[in-house]
Design brief:
By secondary structure, this protein is an alpha+beta fold. It contains 1 helix and 4 strands; from the N terminus they run E-E-H-E-E. The chain has one domain. The chain starts with a strand and ends with a strand.
């Protein structure tokens, strides 16, 4: 995982065999004290729970 504080972007690398759980990642980001805006992976965009 890497963070760019100036841009507010974090990069996370997942195992190739699995699909990331966007809701779980979103919740983990919020619980860490950050405010997520969107999660992008292979052209798929997640903008939080509806």
């Amino acid at each position: 995982m890497s963070f760019k504080l100036k841009t507010g972007i974090a990069s996370v690398v997942f195992k190739p065999s699995g699909k990331p759980d966007f809701a779980l990642l979103w919740r983990a980001i919020k619980e860490s004290g950050f405010t997520p805006v969107k999660i992008e992976s292979n052209g798929e965009v997640y903008k939080g729970p509806e």
